[in-house]
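Pilot study result, target chain (458 residues):
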Amino acid sequence: MTERMGKRAAPPVLSADALSSVAYGPEAMLGVLVLAGTAGLAYSYPVAGTIVLPMFAVGLSYRQTIRAYPHGGGSHIVASDNLGRMPALIAAAGLMTDYVLTVAVSIASGIAAITSALPSLDSATAPLGVGVITLLLAGNLRGVRQAGTLFAVPTYAFIGAVFLLIGFGLADAADRGFTSEPGPVTPVTETVGLLLITRAFFSGATAMTGIEAISNAVPVFKSVEWRNTRTTLTWMVSLLITMFVGIVVLTRVTGVVPRPEETMLSQLARLSFGTGWMYVFVQAATAAVLPLAANTAYNDFPRVLSLLARDGYAPRIFMRLGDRLAYSDGIILLSIAAALVFVAFGGQTDTLIPLYAVGVFLAFTPRRREWSSTDGVCGTVTGARASASTPSELGCRPRSSSPSASASSPQAHGWRSSQSACSCWSPRGSATTTTPPGPPCGCTRTPLNSPRTARTAH
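Predicted structure:
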């Protein structure tokens, strides 16, 4: 029997990816703005505020998904049930890109935390990164499970380190009246414009990665599952926003700017704590949590690939379970892809970030489209409440085609849909020949031959 997690054990296991992203998200945003010098850095707060808005919106969207999909609902599943085949494939492609880049970026950022404290290891960035990926590959092929204690110590240590850093930094800034320290003179290579601001937004928005992990893990929570999952998600998004904003504010009041030889977190820790044990603690916690963030991709990438293989969009070999009941072929493919990307980009976080943003937003976009309408869900969404029945549970799926209504179709029995067409399917996927007792997916009862398009909810 699978051990279930409570609200205290779940955050470190499921939130390592999302929360650790503050180690590179704010730095990625400022790394673009600094190209325009002081004029570009002046837009730090507006761009950060713009990033916080989709963080909140994505968190709200996943809260709805958790209630409507009590057995777990990732972007691929939700898009497949509500939008059809092509949006589901786009979401799957975005997720798989996101997972590959999660491994590469997390490892690159973790190695950067080490080389910031030990500059002599900088020349060994590529071998160190490939070595960590190899360890993750070996562990996952042997069926290593996420252990609560294994994840809890580094994740909570990282959260504590970031809040200590923000607290000490802001306390010091308060003593001098929050006046910003002059930063180093940086060369101006670009002018402030829409393109620069947009690049900064998308680079910083990579901090939103990893939020999906909780919506996929609803069944592993203790009862009441959906309520505990929502609580955990709310805490995670709140912590993410607080840490993201805190780091951006701290960099502005201290005058710290991104530098290729040292991460921003290392610079901030050195300013606040010197080079003593507190500095070592911040760097060690950062370096420890990022490989755990990379490990979350090893749980989800093979699963999504197996779903695609089941539906005929990937080789069926990826459906095969290994001796340790893990999707070994998917794990190997992820490791090879991540290692190739890591080496190709020299293990540098700043060069990986633009590609990372592509996967993040491809995975989120279909989900945001889905919540703009409730027609694809076999139930009603009202405010924060949604029906527990999902299209996959009821056996219903919307169709994008619009065939004429036959005698056995939902339309022939008085069902009307705001979509182009709707149909009901049996659990095995074959079309039913009788009218179901309730409305098919996205349909409501309308009198036959009615000249009106108004609908009456069933």
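One observation from the pilot: The first helix runs from residue 10 to 20. A full batch analysis is planned for the follow-on phase.
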